[in-house]
Specification:
Elements lengths: L2 E7 L2 H13 L4 E5 L12 E6 L3 H10 L4
Antiparallel strand pairs: 1-3, 2-3
Length: about 70
């Protein structure tokens, strides 16, 4: 199964909200934290990953919620 990054942010709250919305819609979403622990919010971001099959629906959900 191919996965796609659909959203990334330095805001942990935005990422958790987005993942919650996707999970409520039945879309399995995972996060990957690529932030530099020595310099938080300066280098890297937190990514949201979903299945390629769910990519368009997930993006639409986040657009409707004004997260994207």
């Amino acid at each position: 199964m191919k996965n796609e990054t659909i959203f990334f942010s330095v805001s942990n709250i935005k990422v958790k909200t987005a993942v919650h919305l996707l999970n409520e819609a039945g879309i399995e979403a995972h996060t990957i934290n690529k932030m530099d622990s020595a310099h938080p919010n300066l280098f890297g971001a937190i990514q949201i990953i979903v299945s390629k099959d769910d990519e368009m629906e997930a993006k639409n959900i986040l657009k409707e919620a004004e997260i994207l």
